[in-house]
Amino acid sequence: MKKYKIQDNPFVVPTADGKVIKEHFGLASDKNSEISIAHMKAPAGWSEPFQTPEFDEYTFIIRGKKQFIIENDIVVLEAGQSIKIERNTRVQYSNPFTEVCEYISICTPAFSINSVHREG
Hints:
The model has no long low-confidence stretch (mean pLDDT about 95). The strands form two sheets. The protein has a six-stranded antiparallel beta sheet. Strands 4-9-6-7 form a four-stranded antiparallel beta sheet, with no helix packed on it. It is built from two helices and ten strands, in the order ββαββββββββα. It is mainly beta. The longest helix is centred in the first third of the chain and has 4 residues. The chain is globular and about 50 Å long. Helix content is about 5%, strand content about 45%.
């Protein structure tokens, strides 16, 4: 038995807001509850409601910019920058800019719609 897995068919998460989410590893793709790794593209003008997830989330920006409102701080990351947001922290993600933001998101434990706690 091989001790590795190449993921060339990620789970494409259905969205209604124009965001593209391709989960390579995680609950939706391979039932891994410990970690999720997703490649995402957020269109210009995109935003999500505030949330207080039960997981740590790491984000690495590949292209464009992404805005984070973390409790009372506004943080903008650009290509080449990364951030870790600790679990149980109130945060809002958005792309209020004019170009697509492409990024990698890693959640530990894995992202779950039941543990993200989105408002509204």
